[in-house]
Amino acid sequence: xxxxHDADGIVTAPLDKHALLAGGYDFPGHTELLAARTGCxxxxxxxxxxxxxxxxxxxxxxxATTHIALxxxxxxxxxxxxxxxxxxxxxxxQQWFGIPEPxxxxxxxxxxxxxxxxxxxxxxxxLAPAARASGLLGPFPADTVFVRAMRGAFDAVIAPYHDVGMxxxxxxxxxxxxxxxxxxxxxxxxxxxxxxxxxxxKGIADAGSMIESILLCAAIARRVxx
Length: 226
Prior knowledge:
The protein is an alpha/beta fold. It has helices at residues 17-22, 30-38, 73-76, 79-97, 122-134, 142-150, 162-173, 208-224, and strands at residues 10-11, 43-48, 60-63, 104-107, 137-140, 156-159, 177-182, 188-191. An 8-stranded mixed β-sheet has the order 1-8-7-2-3-6-4-5, with helices on both faces.
């Protein structure tokens, strides 16, 4: 419907990954399913709806790799993966968020960005050249780059793997952040949390992130004039 322009955008509720697989769909989540359905290069971005207390900028985190096991991350964090994330993020922030010249930082993979190779060489050998080629700042250590972004140094941070990026955004804005699939021909948003089946039917779920997802999807649709 969105591809036919019968709908201006899509807001998805949390999805149980086991249920998706049991239903015959071998996708890790909505992001990968929508990328396959549209044939687009996409990027998963978690965006805070407002700055955290004591900071100036809403944190935005983009993943260079998404739902894969940690042991597979080093092989998946390639120059191509970083370049794709950078290009999709830059275009998305320009078109959907009205940021003319996005300042994008790359989060390092290893502690202290490898510390000159002492704690791994991936940051020097792969991430640093990829950052230069893609117009990114960094790579910067994970323990400082997100704080710097929240203080206004960057408009978004590209994280090399799922948990380092998701931990940062959820600590900063859990319950009010929005998952945005950048790169699609239409806006798609979703809440920043999972299904929480353990509390289903108890009347205690917090709808805050779902509300923010609906509002952001509508705002993007209005901005691009879909």
